[in-house]
Design brief:
about 400 residues; binds heme C; 6 strands; Cytochrome Bc1 Complex, Chain D, domain 2; mainly alpha; two-stranded antiparallel sheet
């Protein structure tokens, strides 16, 4: 608040300076733009504890190596980043170097934010300077040995971090370049959607082919028609990112959060730009042969489906647009990994509610109704019925998720 008033006082003087070489951090436009970029980059998603003050830190991130807590990035001088220079800030956000030279873990998406312009990053800082300072000490590093050794990140960075600003492609339109800039930078879509190697680095040769995270599977976004967005139009993609739903799908889990906190706040022009860029990704990902309807697991799955699922998703899997997602021909259902499907069947899900589509229909939990082999059978069935084709779901994968998700029998 203090800084907002300060900004009002100074804004009279700063309008002319806003377009100068360095962004004027007190100008309204810069602060407003910084707020826009901070929501595009979804800084609050990780840097806010559940029910806590925005940006005050404490949000837990499960990584394959253990838990990290996101630090306090409010302007509190003692426990936040109030005492940081802009240089410190840029170094953390774009190079993964924290205060005092400590290496940050790439759970902080500096590997993506490195593509942002310096002006956009400074604008985010200007915006963060205006949020309420909160005293909240966070000890981010909860990792077990040896992963708690930050020095190891030097080697990791050498292997997997490709620092550098976004380089526009002169052969593409301004709209495409804007979409690529947002997707590869602030929006860090690949953090969830690009497969990871054993060390948690992006497998760049498999850009956007889908990846497991936090007991979900973030699907393939390439141009593949069965697995990816090949059949989605630019309008379908923009509508999904704005409202969390379209004629193909309804967002759940981490994507519901990404829509609510980030993409639904983007301008229509930026959403369109992202969609235009995604539509140019070449098809990627391996397809599989459908399982025959005669196999015992498909028969078992078909019976469970008619009994438990068809009332909402309809017998032929077409669903009801806007209410019950389509399973037949759905790319989400045919991903190489069934984690998201098992997750939804075990835990149920409430579809995302956005300003543009305020009520979210719900999917009930089947954790008590169906055993592991029954969940695996019905998931295998929807992945291979109606012309769908995808690997069978394993009973063991169902048990693993049952254990990982809270409150399951
Ligand atoms: C996907 C989760 C995630 C997102 C999104 C994210 N951060 Fe972080 N951030 C982290 C984690 C985790 C750490 C701690 C990493 C560590 O200690 O190695 C961190 C560390 C930081 C630090 C270093 C703070 C310190 O005290 O050392 C800064 C500054 C920071 N983030 C700013 C931002 C900004 C600004 C944004 C948005 C542009 C952002 N973060 C988005 C997870 C995230
Ligand atoms: C925090 C992780 C995360 C981030 C960041 C993220 N996604 Fe997702 N996304 C997911 C998950 C998980 C799903 C699966 C959701 C479901 O099962 O309903 C998903 C689903 C989708 C789908 C639906 C695909 C389909 O076949 O049904 C699209 C499109 C999509 N994301 C695009 C994007 C774009 C574009 C961005 C960046 C602007 C993005 N996502 C950022 C995790 C993420
Ligand atoms: C009462 C209605 C209802 C029943 C019964 C039901 N579902 Fe759903 N299902 C939904 C709704 C609503 C969603 C969207 C919720 C969301 O995405 O968060 C959904 C989402 C899904 C999804 C995720 C698809 C996507 O595109 O996001 C799958 C997979 C799914 N259901 C499978 C099943 C299976 C298998 C059964 C039977 C075991 C079943 N459902 C029973 C209503 C239902």
């Amino acid at each position: 608040m203090r800084c907002v008033l300060f900004a009002i006082a100074l804004s009279l003087f700063s309008v002319a300076a806003a377009h100068a070489q360095f962004p004027d951090k007190q100008s309204f436009e810069v602060i407003e733009h910084g707020g826009y970029m901070a929501s595009a980059a979804d800084c609050a998603a990780c840097h806010t504890a559940p029910g806590g003050q925005p940006f005050a830190g404490g949000g837990a991130l499960e990584t394959p190596f253990g838990t990290l807590l996101a630090p306090n990035i409010t302007p509190d001088v003692a426990t936040g980043i109030g005492a940081w220079t802009d240089e410190d800030f840029v170094n953390a956000v774009q190079n993964g170097i924290g205060h005092g030279g400590a290496h940050l873990y790439p759970a902080m998406p500096y590997t993506y934010y490195t593509r942002m312009t310096r002006d956009d990053v400074i604008a985010v800082r200007a915006f963060l300077d205006t949020v309420r300072p909160i005293r909240n000490e966070v000890h981010p590093n909860q990792l077990p040995f040896p992963f708690n050794q930050r020095e190891a990140m030097t080697g990791w960075n050498a292997l997997y971090f490709r620092p550098g600003l976004f380089k526009p492609d002169a052969g593409q339109s301004a709209e495409w370049n804007r979409g690529a800039y947002l997707t590869q930078g602030a929006e860090h879509c690949g953090l969830c959607h690009t497969p990871k190697n054993a060390m948690g680095g992006d497998e760049n040769s498999r850009d956007m082919e889908g990846s497991v995270l936090q007991n979900w599977f973030a699907p393939n976004l390439t141009g593949d028609r069965r697995l990816g967005l090949g059949d989605w139009t630019v309008e379908d993609i923009a509508l999904y990112l704005k409202t969390g739903r379209n004629r193909f799908d309804i967002a759940s889990g981490p994507m519901a959060d990404a829509v609510t906190h980030s993409t639904s706040h983007l301008t229509d022009a930026d959403l369109r730009a992202i969609a235009v860029y995604l539509k140019t990704l070449p098809p990627g990902g391996a397809s599989s042969e459908p399982l025959s309807a005669d196999t015992p697991v498909m028969r078992q799955g078909a019976a469970i489906y008619l009994d438990q699922c068809a009332a909402c998703h309809t017998a032929n899997g077409a669903g009801i647009v806007g209410l019950f997602p389509r399973l037949n021909g759905s790319s989400l259902v045919q991903q190489r990994d069934a984690t998201s499907l098992i997750h939804v069947v075990l835990a149920g899900s409430r579809a995302v509610a956005t300003d543009a589509a305020p009520t979210g229909p719900a999917m009930p939990s089947f954790a008590w109704k169906l055993s592991n082999d029954q969940v695996a059978a019905v998931v295998t069935y929807i992945r291979n019925a109606w012309g769908n084709a995808a690997p069978a779901a394993a009973d063991g994968a169902v048990q693993k998720l049952r254990t990982a998700l809270p409150g399951n029998p």
